[in-house]
Each structure stands twice: as C-alpha cells, then as structure tokens.
Specification:
single chain; 3 helices; 5 strands
C-alpha cells in the first residue's frame, strides 16, 4: 500500500479521536504513521503491518495510560446531576408507602419518585441513600 493511504487512515483516526477522547484511535493513527514510514522506505506489506502493530501496541501500552491519567484523572470524580442527589437532604412531598410503591420527595427544588423501607408521612426530612433509575431510596434523618 502507498504511504499516503496510511496518512489518510491516520488523519481519519485523529479526526475520530476528537469524538471519542479515549486515545484509542490516536494510538491507531500513530500506528498508521509508523506503517506509512515503512511504506515510504519501500518495504513490503508485512513490514508495514508489523510496524503498524508494534507502534500502535507501544503507544497503547505507554502513551495512552499516561494521557488518560494526566488529562482525565480528575474528571472521573465528577458526578452527574442525578448522582449528586445521593447523600442530600430531602423533604417528603407525598407520603411514601413502600408496599404500594408510592411517594415523592423534593431534593434541591426537584421532585423525585421515592421509596423507603418504612412508610413516611409528608413533611418528613430524609436523606437520600441511593438512586435506582429515577427512583430515590430515602431514610429519615436522625
């Protein structure tokens, strides 16, 4: 294969990397650049495949973990707005009956479907234990 075909593949991988942000396609793109180098020197198909595999594997094992750790290390601790309600105080809006699976709570001004281990009356101050889909599990605040 001509070296410019590998360059086109590499550019495609780098463009795709902008959408995935996992450094997977970037490693493949760098591998394609290695294969382009071997093709430019006029080596055969198997050296090109070997260069691609070797460069991509080295990039995957060496550069990708470093990049993920230093560029995205802090972002793994960011909670989505839905996950942020866990641990928050809430007030029971409509009585919670775990047998009939009814009840709503208000957390930070938003109304959520809720359940609890025991029936809770309206106005009870609670704490959110967990989020399961769109239903909060709450317990009375002590």
């Amino acid at each position: 294969m001509n070296y410019y075909m590998y360059l086109i593949i590499a550019v495609g991988c780098f463009i795709g990397e902008m959408f995935s942000m996992e450094f997977s396609l970037a490693c493949l793109g760098i591998g394609a650049l290695g294969a382009a180098g071997t093709a430019w020197f006029g080596l055969g198909v198997w050296p090109q495949v070997g260069a691609f595999a070797l460069v991509a594997a080295v990039c995957w094992a060496g550069i990708r973990p470093f990049a993920l750790k230093h560029l995205y290390g802090k972002s793994k601790h960011i909670k989505t707005p839905a996950e942020a309600v866990v641990g928050q105080e809430c007030v029971v809006e409509t009585a919670i009956d775990p047998v009939q699976d009814t009840g709503r709570v208000k957390v930070n001004g938003e109304s959520w479907k809720a359940t609890a281990k025991e029936p809770l009356s309206a106005g009870t101050v609670c704490v959110v234990e967990k989020l399961d889909g769109v239903t909060l599990t709450v317990h009375p605040k002590n």
